[in-house]
Design a protein that fits this description.
The chain folds into 3 domains: 110 residues, no CATH class; 55 residues, no CATH class; 116 residues, no CATH class. The chain is of the alpha+beta class.
Length: 326
């Protein structure tokens, strides 16, 4: 998510919590108090002792609501629904947790420390961490590197700034050969960098597999956004299946950037060519038509059709097992 979008989400969260009559204290990602809602990443409602965390980094886009032990869900149901709508609008994960005690800001003071620890853990996988100049960022893995050119100057004071405002992105191997990456997905770029460092190349079968996951993820996120607005399917299980598959694709790319995750996926990889029958695509196109067909989702349909087909096969098997048990 771009920096400006994150700031807009933060402002929307503040307005929503405040709009329900609660007094809100704001904290930055580093745990410092702030009066600027766009800088805030934690929102503490003092009267009901509720903390809302906006978690946005290279691999996570999530709103987490933490409720105190004695909070009556009925009293905050409408506000939680409004926060969930914000998460849906920006295609973010949404989680509600209840603590076993009354929450104070001190309960979340460890988060800044954990962030630093997680960064070092990630660097421990072999990545150097982000560094560079005002308009260029680099992350190295051995002799290979990711190079990011930014649209605007990097604000070093903002966490994650070197993975935002991306104009172009390149993968460079140990020989100095540079490949332009087709989009700004940093997680996918790290997976590709791992593959290149292991002796692979973007144009080989596994490199194309990484591109394929990235393309499928992008198309499904586009479709999911449209589906949330238009509710294409009567069967709610289809929307849930698409969401679960998006999470699985994200997880695959993330784990692939690590040594163990890459090795496991590389060794189990087999080249597949699963074409979807034209008749099924036409049937799906009819199903997702409201008053006109939205051409922006046409490239998403083969991936959606495959998910639906796998869902129906699984449902059929489950029904057979239940029938056999009876």
């Amino acid at each position: 998510m771009a920096g400006t979008s994150t700031e807009h989400v933060a402002e929307q969260l503040f307005k929503t919590i405040k709009g329900f009559g609660h007094k809100v204290v704001l904290f930055t990602d580093g745990g410092k108090k702030t009066v600027d809602p766009t800088e805030a990443r934690r929102f503490y409602a003092t009267d009901i002792q509720m903390m809302v965390n906006l978690v946005v980094d290279e691999t996570t886009n999530e709103i987490v609501v933490n409720l105190s032990k004695d909070t009556d869900i009925k009293n905050v149901k409408e506000m939680l629904s409004a926060i969930r709508n914000i998460a849906n609008r920006y295609i973010m994960e949404y989680t509600v947790k209840t603590f076993g005690k009354a929450i104070t800001p001190r309960d979340f003071s460890h988060m800044a420390k954990n962030t630093v620890s997680e960064t070092h853990d990630h660097i421990g996988e072999g990545f150097s961490g982000w560094h560079g100049s005002a308009r260029k960022s680099v992350n190295e893995l051995g002799d290979a590197k990711i190079i990011v050119k930014h649209r605007r100057s990097v604000d070093e004071e903002k966490r994650g700034a070197r993975t935002r405002q991306i104009e172009s992105l390149f993968i460079e191997n140990a020989a100095g050969e540079r490949f332009k990456f087709p989009n700004s997905n940093i997680t996918a770029a790290k997976a590709m960098l791992r593959h290149v460092q292991e002796g692979g190349a973007p144009h080989d079968d596994f490199g194309q597999h990484i591109y394929g996951i990235m393309e499928e993820l992008g198309q499904l996120k586009t479709f999911q956004r449209k589906n949330k607005r238009n509710d294409f399917f009567e069967d709610a299980a289809i929307g849930e299946e698409i969401g679960a598959h998006i999470s699985e694709l994200r997880h695959n790319l993330k784990t692939m950037s690590g040594t163990k995750g890459y090795t496991a996926q590389f060794e189990s990889f087999t080249k597949e060519s699963a074409e979807i029958e034209p008749e099924k695509l036409e049937e799906l196109k009819d199903n997702v038509t409201v008053s006109y067909f939205d051409e922006t989702i046409s490239e998403s349909l083969p991936y959606v059709a495959r998910i639906i087909e796998n869902l129906r096969v699984r449902q059929s098997k489950e029904a057979s097992i239940v029938e056999f048990a009876r």
